Predict the 3D structure of the following.
Amino acid sequence: MEIFAVSGSLRPQSTVTALLRAAVALLPEGDHAEIHPSLAELPFFDPAIEPDDAPDVVQEFRARVEAADAFVVAAPEYAAGMPGVLKNALEWLVGSGEVYEKPTAVLTASPNPGGGARSRSWTVETLTIMSADMPGDAVLGVPLVRSVMADGVLNDEATIARLRAMWDALRAKL
């Protein structure tokens, strides 16, 4: 399985990005994931731009999503919702259809007990409108994330099991 993943956080030391990296480390042998380096490189979405006329950086982003077997979105919770940079990236994919029926996972994390529930809700709603295929085990939040990770390493067997189930749910859709 080839996976393309994005983090909605621009902070280099982001907890949700660290969780995404830890999840990728749990991929079974033979599977591969590429994590997009930074959504900051994408310009602001402009609905007046036709899909074929999008800037090169957007065309490359779309091509990476299209080429992947599965798409993973790691969404931190900012101001009780999805970060703007993530919403912007997803908007570039709406009209061009790269996530249409694509196996997609949503991973949220938060230091609070909600596990990023508001961000997860917004992200799932956006991806649902885009007709992404999100199996139940591939949509998960990690509450109290700092208690299950130390220095970017997962130390909680239940969280590890949930992340492995996420990969299995995506693979089952292929």
